[in-house]
Amino acid sequence: MTIKFKAVNALEQDGKLNIDINDLNITDLYSGDVLIKVLYSTINYKDGLALNYNKGKIMRKFPIIPGIDFSGIVLESDHQKFLPGDEVIATGWGLGETHTGGLSQMARVNGDWLIKKPTGISLKDSMVLGTAGLTSMLSILEFENNNITPQHGPVLVTGGSGGVGSISISLLSNLGYEVIALTRSVENFDYLNSLGASQVIYTNNLNNEGKFLNKGQWSAVIDTVGGDILSSLIPSIKNKGCVALCGNVSGVNLNTNVLPFILRGIRLIGIDSNNCSFETRSIAWERLSEKINILKSNLIITKIGLVDVFKIAEEILLGNIKGRILVDVNLI
After folding, report:
1. Quick one: 113 and 137 in the same domain?
2. DSSP secondary structure code for residue 312 in this structure
3. Tens digit of pLDDT for each residue in 142-152?
4. CATH assignment at residue 189
5. I want to staple 67 with a disulfide (CB 3.0 to 4.6 A). Which of 32, 102, 241, 253 is the partner?
């Protein structure tokens, strides 16, 4: 079968990387038992790294189509769970890293990587959330599993103006939590307040005294940045508190000590949205579909076409993007 389509395509030639929008055929897609007409994708921080000449070595096979998530309609399926016409969502599983991804008008993947779109959400809105929304909800599910309720005290969200941060603040606030937002820019103040943050803390005002233990301030933290920021937060987590760790913008190293863990019983929980189970994804997306109208009313949503992804990727890495980016892959 010959089906032509447009996609962002990354090629490595003579040790140099070339990323551009190309006309491709479905034979250029990696193997899979479900063929999908992609309607929407999004740009996450990881996509920003990939589109900026693969900083961080996100893409590990070439040629490849970047984009770690997408939503669309099944065209062909050899998978028992899916039929032509089904509306599906894909996030993670190596999309855009080791398998052709979502910044494309067509995709072919393993059906086990897909979930059917919940009835309460549209394909468009699913990519308003994307991997960022899934990561946020997975973090909240971990809080609930560890009995972190609104009554336990405020929750801190780092990187508050980014995708995961924005969605997390809105979700937590709607669920009755007191939310404190951590940001590096005073320009984000009004936006973070509008999402539901009761207080905004600036990174350069964070207590970095280096004590083994500080006064317990937060019942939980959703941390999207890692590095020194996370290191400085751990001594201030309340007794039996949780940190949901889902990012490393500020670095991959963690400088901490054992006392908050053995004297306060705090828990540091890694959030793996890439490889989490089908069952967990389904629960998370159902919960997100229940909150989509609240989220859409709060988030800054920027809609772009495929040709705009490179510029947006640069702005994401510079920290200049608030909220979420919706990519209409058929808008050229």
Report:
1. no
2. H
3. 999 999 999 99
4. 3.40.50.720
5. 102
